[in-house]
Write a structure and sequence with these properties.
41% of the residues lie in helices and 24% in strands. Helix 5 runs antiparallel to helix 6. By secondary structure, it is an alpha/beta fold. It has a five-stranded parallel beta sheet with strand order 2-7-1-8-9, with helices on both faces. The protein has a single domain, classed as Rossmann fold, CATH 3.40.50.300. The protein has seven helices and nine strands; from the N terminus they run E-H-E-E-E-H-E-E-H-E-H-E-H-H-E-H. Bound molecules: guanosine-5'-monophosphate. The site of guanosine-5'-monophosphate has 13 residues, from strand 5, strand 6 and strand 7.
Length: 191
């Protein structure tokens, strides 16, 4: 698949909106021919995350090295001292497999991809039913400290304002329905 044929499917949302669950669901549907864009990050792995599957976990120094060499399509300091970015060679890897690329990235990163590859990108904003519900989900996940949760909630409030810049807003108040809608959107776009 070439740059012209390969599609980019971006899922962005405040964390706790359920976007990762939706992305994992789509990746299991072989007929959609998707592969996950593994981001590089300088944050530590948490829970069951696997290096080279969920993220490429690298040091802050290595991350800065990649920035200097212009190896990223986009990168950001999503949270203080925690860098995240999409390596150019990651997208090339997936297109070489003949697959479409699916991204689980933050709102600004998602819009940067959409602007860079406007022809072949579908950018979907997953909206939690409310900030209160999102906060409840983050607490239920039990992976973040209280301070981190507060930081994520504050960021989410800002991110909600960007929903209108995406191609589609998918409200996730019923997960099964959201999964079905996401499937239909991706199927139609990649056909
Ligand atoms: P988490 O630490 O919860 O895995 O991710 C924090 C945020 O960073 C999430 O919104 C996630 O989607 C976003 N993120 C993950 N990878 C990238 C990336 O490559 N670029 C950008 N801009 N954000 C990313």
């Amino acid at each position: 698949m070439t740059k012209k044929e390969g599609k980019l499917i971006v899922f962005s949302a405040p964390s706790g909106s359920g976007k990762t669950t939706i992305v994992h669901h789509l990746l299991k549907q072989d007929e959609l021919n998707l592969d996950f864009s593994i981001s590089a990050t300088s944050r530590n792995s948490r829970g069951e995350e696997i290096n080279g599957k969920d993220y490429y976990f690298i040091s802050a120094e290595e991350f800065k090295n990649h920035i200097e060499k212009d190896n990223f399509i986009e990168w950001e300091e999503v949270y203080t001292d925690n860098f995240y970015g999409t390596l150019k060679k990651e997208v090339e890897r997936i297109w070489e497999l003949g697959k479409h690329v699916i991204f689980d990235i933050d709102v600004i990163g998602g819009l940067n991809i959409k602007n860079k590859f406007s022809e072949n990108t579908l950018a979907i904003f997953v909206q939690p039913p409310s900030i209160e519900e999102m906060e409840r989900r983050l607490r239920g996940r039990k992976t973040d400290s209280e301070e981190k949760i507060k930081e994520r909630v504050a960021k989410a409030e800002k991110e909600m304002k960007y929903a209108k810049d995406f191609d589609v807003v998918l409200v996730n108040d019923d997960l099964d329905l959201a999964k079905k809608s996401a499937y239909n959107l991706v199927e139609k776009f990649t056909k």
